[in-house]
Amino acid sequence: TKHVIKNIEWTTAKNFTVETGREQIEELISTWDIHESWLHHSEFLREEELKDRKQYHYRACWGIPTRRKPIPRATASVYFVIVISKLKPDTAPVEVFYRLESSTLIRRPKQCQFREKWLKDIIENKIACLDRL
């Protein structure tokens, strides 16, 4: 069976604000099939002005707190970039990309469905590394 990729309708360049960007990232995250034990917070990191576009950088930091360990031993971050083209009309939607902290592979929400396993792998690798130290 074909897996349906969930996405959201992104705001236009003219309606974009830093806070709208964060809210839309939260909206995208809400479409991901992730167990409720995972908690995250998202934050705006910086704005980057380039010749043909503006880029807005965000981070969502994930962990699984428990009663015995309310502060997780390790966390996993997902980095988002919202791009506003200076070449396209301001009525065009923003472009969105994300990558995992352990990877240089850049993904687009409309082309790739997020997998909970990616977060688990990052955390398991960090804990294994900590255990070796």
Task: Please describe what this structure looks like.
The protein has about 130 residues and is α+β, with helices and mostly antiparallel strands. It has one domain (about 15-130). It contains two helices and four strands, in the order αββββα. It has helices at about 20-30, 115-130; strands at about 40-50, 55-65, 75-85, 95-100. Strands 1-2-3-4 form a four-stranded antiparallel beta sheet. It is elongated. GO terms for molecular function: protein kinase A regulatory subunit binding. Pfam families: AKAP28 (PF14469).
Notable characteristics:
four-stranded antiparallel sheet, 133 residues, AKA14 protein, alpha+beta, 4 strands, AKAP, AKAP_28, 2 helices, protein kinase A regulatory subunit binding
Helices and strands in order, then pairings?
Layout: H1 18-31, E1 39-49, E2 53-63, E3 76-85, E4 95-100, H2 116-132
Antiparallel strand pairs: 1-2, 2-3, 3-4
What is the tally of beta strands?
4
Q: Biggest β-sheet, characterized? A: 4 strands, antiparallel
Over the alpha carbons, how many angstroms does the gyration radius reach? Answer: 16 Å
Q: Which class of secondary structure composition applies to the elements?
A: alpha+beta
Helix coverage percent of residues? 10-25%
The stretches of 5 or more residues where confidence is low (pLDDT under 50) are none
> What is the element string, with H for helices and E for strands?
HEEEEH
Mean model confidence by pLDDT: 92
Strand composition percent: 25-35%
The end-to-end distance, rounded to whole angstroms, is 44 Å
Cα shape: elongated
Strand order of the largest sheet: 1-2-3-4
What is the count of distinct domains? Answer: 1
Number of helices: 2
InterPro entries: AKAP (IPR053084), AKAP_28 (IPR025663)
GO molecular function, one term: protein kinase A regulatory subunit binding
Protein name: AKA14 protein
